[in-house]
């Protein structure tokens, strides 16, 4: 019911804003599903690297595998400040990176990163520089369920909690294995997927495996959660488009552009 309550609040805020009863639309937020890279948590307790946990819980629950029902998938180019890791620019959310114009919130395209054909003509050094500066990001949103343990070793369950997962680098194409394995006429929303990690050098790759024995039922709660993700994407793209238009008109990034997207920037850390 957590996701349903969140939807009711988001829809109410949107209606109030349209009726002229609000000054600023409240940003829709969803917890991040993350791979743990730390050996200790903030309290100094031992935690296993490479395990997965959901942020925003009263106490983090770590597990080697997590079941996810992906309801939405987007692509986005994101630029961060290397000194603070804070996002300084990002494009609109795209359902297909090969179509449409990836406008960004500072009035540019693709956060300045060259298109793939132009990128291929650059030196390897310049290509690596651009890939590090502006990351192509795959964003999955849905609900997750899993059994895990806390840092104290207590067994706990996470059940149907909304999540978003950002995938970059070597893991970027891993979810394609899910898309390519789907039976004819089926969508990724029709099944639960097992999300796990695999150690490679200093990093952990994201791994995905479709559970064809566990179809995802299209219940009322699922439909309501999908509405939340639609509203979330619409809100984010609206703010980015407003920033793009303002920056384009002014010829530079003025305060209006920052005002349009400041809520999203505050929520985003690389």
Low-confidence regions: 253-267
- Reading the helices and strands in chain order gives HEEEEHHEEHEEHH
**DSSP helix count?**
6
Tell me the domain tally: 1
Name the structural class.
Answer: alpha+beta
Shape, principal axes of CA atoms: globular
Largest sheet: 6 strands, antiparallel
Helix amount: 25-40%
Strand content is 25-35%
Radius of gyration: 19 Å
Give the number of DSSP strands.
8
The whole-number mean of residue pLDDT values reads 86
Distance between the termini: 29 Å
Features:
alpha+beta, 29% strand, two-stranded antiparallel ribbon, 30% helix, 270 residues
Description:
It is a single chain. The protein has 270 residues and is α+β, with helices and mostly antiparallel strands. The protein has one domain. The protein is 30% helix and 29% strand. Strands 3, 4, 5, 6, 7 and 8 form a 6-stranded antiparallel β-sheet that branches. The protein has a two-stranded antiparallel sheet with strand order 1-2.
Lay out the secondary structure:
Blueprint: H1 2-18, E1 33-35, E2 52-54, E3 65-80, E4 87-90, H2 116-120, H3 124-133, E5 134-149, E6 155-167, H4 176-181, E7 191-200, E8 203-215, H5 220-250, H6 255-267
Antiparallel strand pairs: 1-2, 3-4, 3-5, 3-7, 5-6, 7-8
Task: Summarize the entry for a quick read.
The protein has one domain (2-267).
């Amino acid at each position: 019911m957590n996701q349903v309550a969140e939807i009711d609040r988001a829809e109410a805020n949107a209606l109030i804003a349209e009726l002229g009863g609000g000054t600023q639309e409240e940003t829709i937020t969803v917890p991040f599903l993350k791979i743990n890279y730390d050996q200790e948590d903030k309290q100094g307790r031992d935690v296993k690297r490479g395990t997965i946990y959901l942020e925003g819980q009263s106490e983090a629950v770590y597990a080697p595998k997590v079941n996810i029902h992906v309801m939405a998938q987007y692509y986005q180019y994101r630029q961060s400040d290397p000194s603070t890791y804070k996002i300084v620019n990002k494009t609109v959310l795209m359902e297909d990176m090969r179509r449409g114009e990836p406008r960004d919130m500072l009035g540019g395209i693709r956060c300045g990163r060259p298109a793939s054909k132009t990128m291929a003509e650059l030196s390897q050094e310049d290509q690596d520089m651009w890939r590090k500066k502006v990351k192509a990001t795959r964003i999955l949103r849905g609900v997750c369920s899993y059994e895990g343990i806390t840092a104290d070793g207590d067994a706990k369950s996470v059940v149907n909690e909304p999540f978003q997962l950002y995938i970059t680098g070597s893991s970027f194409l891993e979810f394609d294995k899910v898309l390519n394995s789907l039976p004819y006429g089926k969508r990724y929303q029709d099944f639960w997927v097992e999300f796990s990690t695999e150690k490679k050098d200093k990093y952990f790759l994201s791994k995905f495996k479709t559970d064809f024995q566990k179809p995802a039922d299209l219940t009322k709660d699922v439909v309501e959660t999908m509405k939340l993700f639609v509203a979330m994407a619409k809100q984010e793209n609206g703010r980015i488009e407003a920033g793009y238009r303002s920056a384009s008109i002014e010829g530079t990034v003025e305060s209006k552009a920052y005002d349009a997207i400041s809520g999203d920037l505050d929520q985003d850390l690389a």
